[in-house]
Amino acid sequence: MADSVQHPDADPDPDTAPHGTSQPGSSRRRFLQASVATGLGIATLASPWATTHTSAETGKPRADDKNLLANPGFERVDAGLPTAWEPFNARSAEHVHSATDVTRSGARSVRLDDPSGSLGIGLRSDRVPVTAGTSYQATVFTYNTSGQSDLYLEFWNAAGTRISAQFRTNPTLDSWQELRVNGHAPDDATHATVLIYLSAANTGTSYADDARLAPTVLDESRVETFGIASPTAAIVGMAVNGDTGYVVTRGQTPPKLVTLNLAERRVERIVRLDRGEGAWATTISGGYVYAGTYPTPDLYRYHPESGDVELLGTIGPAGGFVWCLTTAPDGVVYAGTYPRCEVWEYDPGTETLRNLGRASGDVQYARVIAADERFVYVGTTPRCHVIAIDRVSGTMTDIAPTEIDRDNAVSAIVATAGRVVAAIGDQLVDMASDGSDPVFLAAPNAPSGMDALTVTDDGVLYAVARRTGQIYRRVGDALEPVGIANAGDETRGVVMRDDGVLIGGGGSGVVWYYHPDTGEADVFDLTETDVSGPDLVQSIAYDAGRAAVYVGGHFGITVHHPAEGSSRRIRVAGEPKALLPLNGKLLAAMYPSSEVVEIDPADGRARSFGLIGHNQQRPWEMVYDETGGEVLIATAARYGMLDGGLTILEPESGEMTVYTDIIPGQSYLSVCVADGIAYVAGDARGGYDSTPIWTTAQLAAFDLDSRTVLWRIEPLPDCPSLQHVEVHDGILYGVYKRTSGTWFAMDLESQEILHQGTLSGYGEIVTHRGQVFAATNFSDDISRIGPGADDDELILGPIPTSWYTVPQLEFDDDWHAWGVSDRRLARFDLHPQHWAHRRPR
């Protein structure tokens, strides 16, 4: 069977199942009756048959000459398995079979059975040659009778090592759903594979049919670029050996490991790690530098003399982090990870890597780590545990004093002279290695806690407060403020040099020097060196009055004047998750502080409105209500919490009012305003590492005059996270993060779902000139979803990936929209003359 694509004029007969499609024990009529019973309506629900596409001439699936896969429809079978495909592992061989009972087209599909919550079952295509630097799209249709299914697009180098992988998940039951994954072949890629996979945590049965792998081509004539959208030298990991420092970047992929001459303040060498977005964890052992990365939790060893980088192993699942590394006195390296909160040990002497197990069962983050001769000490977040692990027996003991508040995170830890010092909340706790004899040291003016500790050779402890940059020195059982360095930043590491100068790494991409004798501080700015590179973008906004485009990145906002061909960077304290031009100024809502600031783009001067607070941490959207003259900000709760917030800011006075009970038990991902009503989109998952109490996201209507909730509803069932909402002409449009890409159009008066579909991923919805557009991730498309659309219409894509958060669009006065392409500021031509073609299905 050849693979098939959607014919532009194809419209499957609504009363009969198309040729070659079958479903066990059901009929189309019975399926539609079931859909009506759920309250979705026939017009809003995609039938499992509606995605089988046939040739108008023959009634058979249409051939696809661009498909690189052999046997994409699984029609050719040998010994019960499709040819040109192989089981993912030995266990998969007995759980993957050719099938004829459930097919999307042709006579056969493939069935995958996952009988256990600890098995990973998959079927992988033969490797096909690819061209480095080219973008590819993998697609497959899956039908889950239970559980969920994944699609991976994998790239391999000439040595046969998998060097890159992206995936999508289909959680929908009892209907064919298309999974689409876009990927860019890395510079050293030679081959690609498609993997249909049931994850180790999954239990269930899925069918797959009509797979496809093909290069993708963006219509470059409709994309005008204007240079790097957001330059960055932001860092996450830092380690120091004498006058040599080592830092690892974040946001640049793959990350850079940078060697610094700290005395001369210059960059000596830059090497790239194999993959990832950054490395929070660094340490030094035996003269070698170790780095742990994310979102693939790899452990690397760097050889400073040769410049070689060696991958020692991967110590967690895809999407995981190596959060922390430390070196014991005997040179053994220890790592803490997310999401399994595991502790790993690497012995350079024996070159063995072993898992010591999960440090705590009620949290996911092994956030900070230290070690002495006998124990490894692990601090967790968002709930506080200090776990002492016996290095010989592996016994784990929580030594955190009973007096501490368990809802505080452990943000830094050191082991010294037989004792452990941990930063917990706004205080330090000094305790014996078994947790006895605790001493509590309060830190004045440290509302965000401390994120770096160091002990000098003569036993003096220094601490650095997050955001304020306040430096403390321990004197007896008190913390004495001694000065401020690099205010507004985060500190990645701190150490005292032999000359008595404190050196710290600032998350924004600076190395700071503090001189205790004089109280003076200065910085070495890495953004002015070759460390700087294109960042993944946090946010974007267009200011017609200033003819400017603002782009938010890690610790910076770049002000672009495209007509002049100029840009400049304004340093900010954190990540500007939402931007809003207003009255000639620029408002920015910051993560992780929840601070709201007003910036003058002309000179970079800032005015702070203060912190949102109320356990809010992650701003998602900021809009202006022209009628009320107020700014509305939707935020998600901090780690371990559920309740989000809607903040209403009076721009003139700076007064902020925070409402956290609009959707109890959910965080807020989006807000829009129409006719004096704010519509708030909920996220049942809340802040990271929280325990949900709801299974489905709610949508709330909040009256801005009376400040009361008018109603709350669940627009669609079994969709926990509603990423974005927008109102146009009495219709509310929404797109979900979970289930990814599910979108709907709802009549606000009747609350009836008028239309529903599935996009390539999730992002933001924007209205312009009477049309409704969605910019989405994964396939990085721009689509039209309204008004009156029964299906999404592809307008432009796939666009090279550029977003750290979710894709956004900012229209100017005509049919052009500002966005980002391949991390460059871009202007997209979205004129209706380009809307002639439909998305291939």
From TrEMBL:
Gene3D superfamilies named among the record's database cross-references: Galactose-binding domain-like
Compositional bias (Basic and acidic residues): 1-10
Chain positions covered by the region annotation Disordered: 1-29
PROSITE patterns: TAT (PS51318)
Annotated signal peptide: none
Protein name: PQQ-like beta-propeller repeat protein
Domain of life where this protein originates: Bacteria
